[in-house]
């Protein structure tokens, strides 16, 4: 799988992703005001880091395919596309999960405590994987083949800290920002951290909606590639 992600095959990138970024993240969040809910903020920040890493790595896999000139081969047949999609999601999940595990492990070792329970970790992982797998393609694939194939990626990464309810629970957001955040399912992940609850019907509804939009975008991109 890493042959489709040559940038991560570099040991320098691995050191930055799995060593330097986790260390500086832990150092920063250890300086939080002791009167704040430090544990929830750290877990929320780790999730944001993992989501951003997933988006970035997923985009790198597809942009690498564009650079190699194989986008038409990928989108030419649905079976080929779904195999490549599965590979991109798997690589992105492994990289993002690995970094999150290192950050959580470092912080837990320093603080001598577990950040969240095992059941809550499972809920966060499942919802994060489902949400990332259906939302990320909507933003990444629509920019493929353009002069700036990372436009959709940069857009999603840029707005993610605001629409994901990372810094504060969505219940205390201003109305306009809460409304904007409800358009994406990312707030559902952070809601597990802030409230300890997950709404599976909403996860399914958001996933179905974004899955449909993603399928339409893939079909449109396929037509564009075939025409060109």
From TrEMBL:
Transmembrane segments: 12-29, 41-63, 84-107, 119-141, 153-178, 198-218
Entry keywords, A to Z: Membrane, Transmembrane, Transmembrane helix
Superkingdom of origin: Bacteria
Keyword Transmembrane: yes
Protein name, as recorded: Uncharacterized protein
